[in-house]
Amino acid sequence: MSRSTPNTTRLARAGMLALVLSGPLVAQERPPETREPTVDPVDAMPAQGMIAAPKPGPQQDGDPGGPGQGRQAQFAPVGAVDLLLVDAFQLGNSAIPWGTAATVPASDAVQFKRGRCVFRYRFTARNDGAAGAGAFTNRIHRDAVAGPVLATDPVTGLVAGAMVNSDGHLLLAPGTTLLYVAVDDGATVAETNEANNVRRVRVTVKGDCRRAR
Predict the structure, then answer these.
(1) Could you tell me the pTM of the whole model?
(2) Where is region (Disordered) located (predicted)?
């Protein structure tokens, strides 16, 4: 059986003391642990009340336009032309509102020719558009929109908002005749509304057109 000596005992105690002292130092020298940052699921979502950016794509117009009850076409060209007939149709001494009828006495004629009366006529056209119109032709047709032409009136042009008078002579026989008056007859000028270019009146010539004057 071995016996410990005082030197051995002192060495053992010294070794234990060294271990105790070295423990905290080793622990202090250990590098700090790094942690990945955690993300709260609420923070990862868009904040409440924020408006997400719109996705690119074609925009839909809630009102596509087109003909409607008293509406104009939504996509009408900017600065387009709109020619129409205004006021009344003047024949002899009678002012005849568009779409109505009148009796005109033969005595209003300025001339008689081959059993027919020659009357002075006049009507007015206006450009309601925002752009000027180029040259166009006004005509008067008998008994139908495309009936025989009784009068032709060329117009060199009409600025926006302006009016122009067409006048001349009509040769009418006694009895009733439908007169169709067309501004820009043949639709030479592109317009926003072509439906208001033709108006008519019903004229009854009463009397004898065979008298010489």
Answers:
(1) 0.62
(2) 23-73
